[in-house]
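User: We ran a pulldown and think these components assemble together. Before we commit to crystallization trials, I'd like a predicted model of the whole complex to look at. Sequences follow.
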Amino acid sequence: MKKDHKFFNKLSVRFILPFSVLIISQSLILLATICFGSTFNSLNSKTVETYQNKVQLRSNYLQYSMIDSWSNISSDYDFINEKIKSFISLNDTSIKDFVNDKNYQKDFLNEINDTLYSILRKNKVSESFMVLKSNDDENEGIYLRDYNPSVNSYKNNDVIIEISPTSIRNNYINNGFDIAKLYDTKFTNINYLFDEFNSNLNEELNSSEYKLYAYWLDSFMFHDFESITYIVPLIYQNSIYGILGTGVSKTYLKQELMHFRTNRNDVQNIAIVKKKSDEYTLVSTDYIENQLKQYTLWNYKKTKYDSMYTLNQNNKYWLTYYQLSLYSESSYRVDEQWFVVGITQKSKLFNDNDYIFYQILYAIILTSTIIICLEFIISIPITKPIKKLIKRLSSSGTNNQKTNIYEIDLLLEELNAYEEKVYEMPKKMNQLLSLTGLSVATFEFDNGKNEVLVSKDFYKIISQKEGASRITLDDFRRNIFFFSQKDYLQINDQTIYNNKTNKWLKYKLIENNKGFIGAIYDVTEQMNVTLKVQFERDHDILTGLYNRRGFYNKINSLDKNAFKNSCLMMFDIDNLKHLNDTYGHEAGDDYIIGFSQILSKIDTEHALLCHLSGDEFLAFLYNYDSFEKINEEINKFQEYAKTAKCNIMGQLIPVCFSCGIAFYNNEFDFDELRRKADFAMYEIKGNGKNGFNYFDPLAYNQKLINKETNARFVSMIKNKDIDYYFQPIVNLKTGEVHGYEALMRPLDNEFKSPLKTIEMAKNLNLLEDIEHISFFNALSKYCIEDSDKLLFINSLSSHILSENEFSDLKNDFNDKLSKIVIEVTEEENIDLEKLNKKLDYISKMNATFAIDDYGTGYNNILSILKYKPRYVKINSEFISSIDKDIAKQRLVKSLISYCSDNDILSIAECIETKEELQTVIKLGFDLGQGYFLGKPNSHILEIDEDVKKIIKQNASFKNE
Amino acid sequence: MLNYKKLFAKLLLANIFTITMFSCANKKNNEMVNLIIWDYYSNSQQVAFANKVDEFNNTVGKEKNIYVEQVAFSTSELENKLFSSANNEPGADAFPDAFFAYNDTTYALDKLGKVASLDSYFSKEDLDKFEQKFLPQSYLPDGKLKIIPIAKSTEALYINKTYFDKFVDDNKNLNISLNDLSTIEGIIRVSEAYYNYAHKAFYGRDSLSNYFVISAKQLGFEIFDYDNNGNFYVNFDKNLYKQIFNNYFVPYIKGYFTSSGRFRSSDLQAGNIICYTGSTSSGGFFPKQVIVSDNQKDDIEAYVIPAPIFTNTKGKYAVSQGAGMVVTKSTKEKEQASSEFIKWFTKANTNQEFALSTGYMPVIKDTLNEEFINKSTGTNKKTYEVCKDIIDNYILYANKSSLYSSSIRSIFDNELDELAKNALEVIDSKPESEKENTINYYLSNGYFEEWFASFKQKIENVYLG
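Assistant: Here's a predicted model for the assembly, 1425 residues in total across the polymer chains.
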């Protein structure tokens, strides 16, 4: 009962579903508002802004550091200029002397070595240096380095001397400085720094305007460390005498930029890019993501956010940039621009927003789920009592326990009342049934309980002792129900006969997935009536033997195996008519009854006896172990019948009858058997003898064949049921199809062979029809196939078409006649007149003449001379295995040469192998035909390309 | 029939499960553990370390969502920074998540509750991989694992063999050989001869604190120790200090020894000395040339032997140094992440690569092998050969850690150099006639007693308050 309910009909579902739909809809609306509203858009814009601010922060920091800290050397510059001024005036020399004299330069360096140290400290740079101009590639100067300018050691032991004269070095060492691994006393190969100015500045230089010439070098490699360096020309008396440099190592720069990182969402990738004219240089990078290194930053396009771009090479990366203003308007480097670029993965940029979105989404899903769960709980107080109730009902029926749900309890009361009514119903029903006199018993089986419930009358009906009303299924089957009890005979699916009590029972079962329910009732009375009617219908009233209908019913119901060793006897009693006429029908009836009694001597367990009609009887002996046993029985009966007499109106008279016996043979059906028995019976009766006659198949067949086969063949010919197949005749020089030979294919399977067909037609004098069919059928089909190739038709030399046929032919196929080649096989006793007439027709038709099967014996060279054919077909016997037989080749070669001399095309027939084909081509045949070239087909087909190729190859080979 | 209670419980559980999964997944996906590591590497060593950190961030770090930032300071700065951060001094940076430190610093920071115990992050198998001789210094006196060795060094004697050979050649009668340089007494003897020959100092020494500590050990003393009550004390055996004094201060004022600048390698490069005792990690800084003046640059050949020891040493003791990595006591995740980094960093290959690029000894068992040594070149290779000799044949020693040892060591570092430099200044300032008397004053036992008393006072002020 539970399972019959649909899911959606459940109370809990009906209760929860609408609420759930409500909640889910609400959630979806909320979600849609968030998704399609402006919330996330503005949130994303803010995120982008924040990101840009962070990048700008770095840009500002870098701008500040580069301008106000790292390159802030104006006071030092002035100091150095003052120094050089006083130095030169003190020594009373010129700046030119200064450049030329290195000792002089060393002295100067001695005076300003503290300045370089102070630049290093004050400007918080990782390098400060001074290079003095020289005329060779070695320059005096000082280079100091501090790997980590952010912290200073009070002992100065973080300062490293890369370049300095030894005197200054010793001084530095005493101050705690360290000597670099690659320490040297002077610069080498540094002149390129000066070249930069020489190439750019032609005019007179003004010392106070050094800032216009100073520039940032994006990559300065010195002693294995790379820096970005601020290069300042030292100018005195309008010429450059040295270079002052400060800078930060790229490692330090990276570290400085990195310090801005505060948390996971902060700017992760920062790059500094220099742009000069249209040339970009990556100055420095602080990449967390290594893979960024493969992308070109200045290859970007816009996004929907202001100043936010995406990389062309990988649109997962977004970038923003800020320009550093490093040079004043009047600077020589004003065309050079530096940018701070922030690059981030789009997903990381909006990570928090996505996170918020997922949190909201999750909150929605969570609340929905919880609410649905709560609904579930809320539904419990309602559904639980009902479920309990259902459980009680299904186990023990209604009772008075209440659910405390008003409506349900009301329903329950109604149900109780209803159940009482229902309970009364079967009682009433049984009473009603017993009134009708029908005894019916019912039973029910429930899978779940493994118990069969049977009604009160059950045992009575099945004639058993009274038993329990609940029994197990096994007991029901084994002990009580009758399927396997030998007392019962199951007649068909639902009817059972009880041998012991002569009772007929019928039962009905309704099975379903829960078990089955059924009823059983007594049908003995009805069955008795039915059986009687059935008996009368199938039996002859006079003799009590089967009538024709009964006999055949019985035969049809017999098992196939019963026929294995069986025979049919057909009886015909003599003189019945005479008896009827002379002594009246009563005597005739007695005679029939008497014979039937004699017939009954045959062992009826293995025989069906039938009174077919007036004086005809049948006996079908079956299910014997062997034919010998049947013969024994027949002999026994024969012996008995010799002396048997029947009582006709008080007189005992011997019975005269003829009997035909036919043994059952697997090939024939029962009607055939009857015909055979009939045949045997009439054979003996026809001879005027009484007695038994065994069926003689020879005599029977003779009679049949002559009659039937001829009729069939004639009808085939008259119906023109002959199809024509087309076999290609191939040009052996080109491989193209020359024409097709129409080959006869009779439609009746019995006369499949064309030769047999001709033979039979000859016997039945139907050759004229064959000739007619050859032309008309072949041509009709040829027209349907619609080919422009020649059609070879076999014509009988002894027959010609009549005038009418000829004119029909002309009417029907006029345009095709010229395509026809008529093949004639010369025969032994040829009617020359007819052949000449045929040749006459051929010429009238514009058709061509061919001699077929040349070399069979009847044909000879003379015939070729005589009839001047266009084609000669060489008989298959010559072609078969010609590749292995030199004699054949010689003979055929002479034939071909004769043909070609007389402008006759030679055709090789029956080419079946590749070797034969090659030989035939070699010998010079014009045309060829055979299975290898193409089998006869219902339709006109081209020959195989492979075969064509073989022909072409061999033909060309031959020509060579 | 369904059991509603059970079903509901299941639904609820499923919900809680999904919430947890969801939030965990979110956390895992997004939350990167950022680690800040302070190191004391400088110059090329710092670059090498930065490269390794990059490598970690790009590989294992990426996988495990750990991002390491390294900030470099000099050794003394690092210590100052650590303490000012640990004490939350105004303007101090936030305390790092992990840092490089010596035992003494670690000990002091541990007392401030800043150091995580790593026993739970490093299993016995993890520790078995390390060179066992380095491990004793990984444990603080409380017996807890607090420092993981990363790269170690000891001390060796670096010799300008070119100059030394010339000196030996020029003074064949003195029978001087490289063997003489294996003891401190031998060094002094050769220094005197060299001084007489070239009127220049012969020897210098980095890290005078190591000189104090290892001299004490060699002469049979534990310089820092704890008494039966667990109180810290410094060993003030006068005889010990007399030997320390006599073997450094005395030859210094005689002009045999000298020191200027930060490292003696600078002195050697300037041609001020012929050999020095320095950390084996400084092998790379041994100069290829001596630049005496702007016009004199001599290519030189390096020769490396174990640092000289006292003739009457109690055993072949060698200094064990090189800071290890210490993890800050913080959240489980950060401690775990730091340990992950350290484990990665001490994988045999990584560690060898780092060691090779910095000149330190690798800390994993059997990794200081021939194959490894052959990968290095020049002075580094010679240094590694000596290191292997020391690891195999010497007893590695580091002083006991305490709250005060770090401060006392910095006193050791400056004491004798400053004392000698001051004395030399005084001597220089005297007129020629008084010079000898002044020198004799400094060489007298009275001066030693005077110094010893003030020195002892100075040290005791540190730990007795």
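Residues 4-30 of chain B form the longest helix (27 residues). That may be worth checking against your pulldown data before setting up trials.

User: Thanks, that helps.
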